[in-house]
Amino acid sequence: MTETEISWLPWSKKAFQKAKELDRPILLAISAVWCHWCHVMDQRTYSDRDVAKLIEEKFVPIKVDRDQRPDIDKRYNMGGWPTTAFLTPKGEVLTGATYIPPQEMKPLLQRISHFYKENKDKIKAKLGELEKEEIKAPSVEYGLDHDFFQSVIDGLTLETASSFDSLHGGLGDAPKFPHSEALALALLEYQIQGHKALLNIVTKTLQKMSAGGIYDKEEGGFFRYSTTRDWSVPHYEKMCEDNAKLLVNYLEAYQVTGEDVFEETAHGILSYVNANLSDQDNGGFYGSQDADEEYYKLSLLERRKRTSPRIDTTLYTNWNAMMISAYLLASVVLKNISYRKLALRTVDLLLEKSFSSRKGMYHYYFEGKKHRPGLLTDQASMIRCLTDAYQSTSDRKFLNYAESVAKFMLNNLWNEAGGFYDRPKKAEALGALRTLNKPFDENSIAADAFLRLHYLTGNKKYLETAKTTLEHFGSTYRRYGIMAAAYGLAAELYLRPVQIHIVGPKKDSVTRVFLDESFKVYNPLKVIEILDPAEDTERLTNLKYPITKIPRAYVCFEGTCTSVEDPKEIAKKIEPKGSRKG
User: Fold this and answer.
1) Could you report the per-residue pLDDT of 184-199, keeping only the tens digit for each?
2) Residue after which a domain boundary falls, among 430, 463, 495
3) pTM over 0.90
């Protein structure tokens, strides 16, 4: 080690043991491979000889990757990346910040080290008191009815409308993020309620984004967010997660409006992901591509003369699951089977490399090894994409895997009071990981996933789990504002599911036409299933559907099922509907 290097340790028992033995505070650095200011902090602050010397002498330095350890990031993030957190040897927070330049870091390190030495007995006593204090669980109202969930959706819709920037599109001010879930909810509510203002929020935002600097006009794909209100100056990293969500936004907007700009932008995202963020041969979507302001300011011709920004080829399960669902939708909306093939290759790859019936889905796969099993974000997203794969292929293996993941979640993450913890409880958990956390956003996705499982299997346990989860967060969703849109989408799926049962042999051409026509029409609340009389006799008996010589479909909405004999008529029955649509 040279005199300017810091001997970073991973988050581990060994690191905490060292802090305890030396009785030193921990310096926890949370960074990400794509994060520009993380690289700057490494190059300027942590490479400063005096800073490095102080850290080595007075702290135990631990470094964590935000993408690889979302559970640690959730508990210690100080408002962005890099996060610089100062902890006690047991892992409790003393103080923290984000980016700290070297000239500020030196006196800060001295102050924190001195403060800890002089006050450690008081700190330990205070923390001991806090540990004894009873943590009050939020009051939960069970048995919430249709009107409650409708009021949630109305409130979120109003929140989105009041946040809308009518000049530049988007929600809120700078820095401006896409807020994909809020746009998805606004589009759905337009279809249900018929308010043109909601459609305008979605179309204007998507148009302004694709015309702005946040969209890469040369290579396609979206940058993470805009530093300006008018979308002109992006933060230049590109993320798998963001592009998956935005791909769905543009595809759904195209389904609803038929406007070319949305189709073209969707093609641009797909083109970028195919070329840069995917393994076309084996399946799998890569995590991110680094920010490089100078590179992205060049034309395509000029860019070819220099090395493109680094791509993180890690396969994150949650982000892959999102992209799989987006690609399956793209194959239908854009009538391109190649997107479906890549999506299904990726599902198979994740099941082969990152699934364990005992430990659930692993969080990421890199260089032949899987890491970090059992996190809620991966289980919930994977169930959602497996139900999409099942609906697309009618291959029961995908539904069986989805039920296996659900079983893991119920056995290892479920809390009887309602909601899922973000990680399995472990006696040896370090620092704030000892605290069980129920993340609102991940629980919203879990509720959505369990609802879809119920509609595809008829298993009431899944419905009860989803409803109890939604009820658990019913008193707290307001504090999240437009960030609660995923909860609103799950609430809509609870209130207004459209179940489409196609009864007929899987290989029958009429059955396939019914399936194709069902997929074409926009409705994110639809759940489609082929029931083959030769394979699904028990399910058909439970649903009380007669078996006929010619395939037919049953569209069920609000307790009423309608028989459809002509595939061309099914679209009319599937469109989102609500009592208030004018």
Assistant:
1) 999 999 999 999 999 9
2) 495
3) yes
